[in-house]
Amino acid sequence: MVKIAPRSAARFAEAPAPEAAVVLIYGPDRGQIGELAQAIIKAVAKDPTDPFRVAELTPAAIQDDHTLLGDEARALSLTGGRRAVRVRGAADALTKQLDGYLENPSPDSVIVLEAGELQARSSLRKLTENHARAAAIACYRDEGAGLTQLAKQVLDSHNVRIAPDAMRYVTAQLGADRQSSRNALEKLALYAGDGGQVTLEDAEAAVGDVGESTLDALTQAVSSGQSGVAQRLVQKLFAEGNNPVQVLRGLTRHFSRIAEARAHVDAGMDAESAVGKLRPPVFFRAKPVMVAAASGWTTPRLQNALDRLLRTEIDCKTTGMPAELICARAVLALSAAAPRRRR
């Protein structure tokens, strides 16, 4: 097998290839990882709650007993049918055992591994991406066309239509986690009612609070110069499993929107009107912070901030230093460089 392309992940999960004895699902989107793992287990074992056909092991237990994983995967179901063995929190420490198992895997079981972010040099990634009896699926946060497709899928299932401006707003607010996005879309569908129509006002009312994520709080703290708050929030994001590059890109989107509004200010528009021209619209609770940023940050300072974010992302990928440390330093520097509000 090879890496499963993101666009093919859902289709693969619904009907896993028979030769895939081990499937690794990894990445920063924990909600999507869990969703795909559950779909694979359902496809293999039919009932994910059947204790005779589904087993769950911990990495610690597998490392304590080097025969446990193989024995569990080769065990026969008392009720017949194929079995699934689920391992959450998988890491490179399991590579050696999995490599040995794949020399003679059971045709009656699938081992489903769930992992967090894994670098390209990860031995577990390399094994599952290159072995003929394994497969790997990367789960990155939904954005762009993928997020639009998810929104249409959920809303269509409720026969709910959505206005173009409302769709732009929804896709701008969601995407941090597949399960959170799906929950918010289900909430929006419930708000509209089966067969209903979602307007921009409906979207702001039903989905707006989802947009106030930790990442959004961080971007607002940085642009408003709240260094202490920004440092606490960036550490919280890392603790929640967020990738530093994703954090940097969230900051880049935020500063790009400030720069867009600032261009209108430089052309003679007042800051509030300039922010009002942004599309998708700024959520009303975040608008005061955005107006203050568009007023206080000058275009040269915004360009410096965007340049720094780009350099920081490159450093995260190339220097070999801890990416979390590089990102946290940039957050501190940017928040310290923010214009101070006049008292």
Write structural notes for this entry.
This protein has 343 residues and is an alpha/beta fold. It folds into three domains: 3-138, Rossmann fold (3-Layer(aba) Sandwich); 144-211, Helicase, Ruva Protein, domain 3, CATH 1.10.8; 214-336, Zinc Finger, Delta Prime, domain 3. The chain is built from 17 helices and eight strands. It has helices at residues 9-14, 30-45, 59-64, 68-74, 95-101, 123-130, 144-157, 164-173, 178-192, 200-207, 214-223, 227-239, 244-266, 271-276, 287-296, 299-318, 323-336; strands at residues 3-4, 22-26, 54-57, 83-88, 109-114, 134-138, 161-162, 197-198. It is globular.
SSE topology sketch:
Elements: E1 3-4, H1 9-14, E2 22-26, H2 30-45, E3 54-57, H3 59-64, H4 68-74, E4 83-88, H5 95-101, E5 109-114, H6 123-130, E6 134-138, H7 144-157, E7 161-162, H8 164-173, H9 178-192, E8 197-198, H10 200-207, H11 214-223, H12 227-239, H13 244-266, H14 271-276, H15 287-296, H16 299-318, H17 323-336
Parallel strand pairs: 1-6, 2-5, 2-6, 3-4, 4-5, 7-8
